[in-house]
């Protein structure tokens, strides 16, 4: 099924080109809004999309509508926002000036509050939170690869009905959720691995195969889970194990984790976190929208969050030129030291 109405992706990078590209490969008319360098690459090579199951999709350069100007979203009935979180406020201001009232916007970004930022600027529009559970890597020359699996989730809303059919037909069903905050928190708990992966310098699979890195992630998750419990938030179950069991599973010895965590390790061997990618390219990361949510929650409850605060510090140092690769043992020591040096409560 394809619709006569118009659909566009704002932020044509890994997520935007892959998801927009899959929809375009199925015959839908998709507008891509992004940078000139991406426009040039797609004009030369078109889109080559693949996934970990060995499937391939191709969109010819001649079939790609690309603009570097946000005003190309003016007629869109559905706008997928796929920039990094730091760009959302600017995008929201820009779209507020041009987007068609009544248009549906879905934030497919990580973090908790991108949809809120968009909604605050776009009161006459339907703004929904979405969640992309899998990893997408950009290999250059219009090539994007989905390196892990899962189902797209989006806040349940009647306005989604026509778009759900379109996504389903393209092989990417949108799962409507009424508990989107719980879904976003569950994704955020997994994203707490992003700074660890970026600091490791390793592909995700190689990093998660090492217990010391997994113990770092378990520490960051335990800290977040304790705060979520104080807030009465139960993260959604996105993995075979409930979120509250993950730190225990992550901490098991490598031989046991290989058996327990086979779904978690079902990742393309070359896939890396987008935070690693940002550091490599010298761009600001999303650490404030990921670990920063944990430290903000901690402040609200007058509790410390030393593990996540330390990860933020280390990523900030890497962002400002101090990037180096941390071994699992080094990182675990740094996080354990920060944790041991912090009292269990802070003064209100
Ligand atoms: N990649 C993944 O595996 C993955 C998976 C799940 C969720 N996510 C989340 O999805 C979001 C997008 O991630 P991503 O990896 O797709 O990011 P990305 O590859 O950096 O793509 C975003 C693109 O948007 C462009 N952009 C930013 N502001 C723009 C503007 N005003 N006009 C036009 N283009 C603009 C960026 O250009 P500049 O770089 O020049 O700013 C970049 O090319 C993030 O929140 C991420 O955490 C990513």
Report a brief summary of the structure.
The protein has 348 residues and is an alpha/beta fold.
How would you portray this structure in words?
With 348 residues, the chain is of the alpha/beta class. It folds into two domains: 172 residues, NAD(P)-binding Rossmann-like Domain (Rossmann fold); 158 residues, N-(1-d-carboxylethyl)-l-norvaline Dehydrogenase, domain 2, CATH 1.10.1040. The strands form two sheets. Strands 5-2-1-6-7-8-11-12 form an eight-stranded mixed beta sheet, with helices on both faces. It has a four-stranded mixed beta sheet with strand order 4-3-10-9. Helix 3 links the parallel strand 6 and strand 7. The longest helix has 21 residues. It binds NADP nicotinamide-adenine-dinucleotide phosphate.
Low-confidence stretches: none
What is the typical, i.e. mean, pLDDT? Answer: 94
**Gap between N and C termini:** 56 Å
Helix-strand category = alpha/beta
Beta percentage is 5-15%
Q: What would the keywords be for this entry?
A:
N-(1-d-carboxylethyl)-l-norvaline Dehydrogenase, domain 2; binds NADP nicotinamide-adenine-dinucleotide phosphate; 15 helices; eight-stranded mixed beta sheet; 348 residues; alpha/beta; single chain; globular; four-stranded mixed beta sheet
Topology:
Layout: E1 7-10, H1 14-25, E2 30-33, H2 36-45, E3 47-51, E4 56-59, E5 65-67, E6 78-81, H3 88-98, E7 104-107, H4 114-121, E8 126-131, E9 136-140, E10 143-146, E11 152-155, H5 161-169, E12 174-177, H6 180-191, H7 193-200, H8 204-208, H9 211-231, H10 246-250, H11 254-260, H12 274-280, H13 291-300, H14 306-322, H15 328-340
Helix pairs in contact: 3-4, 7-9, 7-12, 7-14, 9-15, 13-14, 14-15
The structure holds NADP nicotinamide-adenine-dinucleotide phosphate.
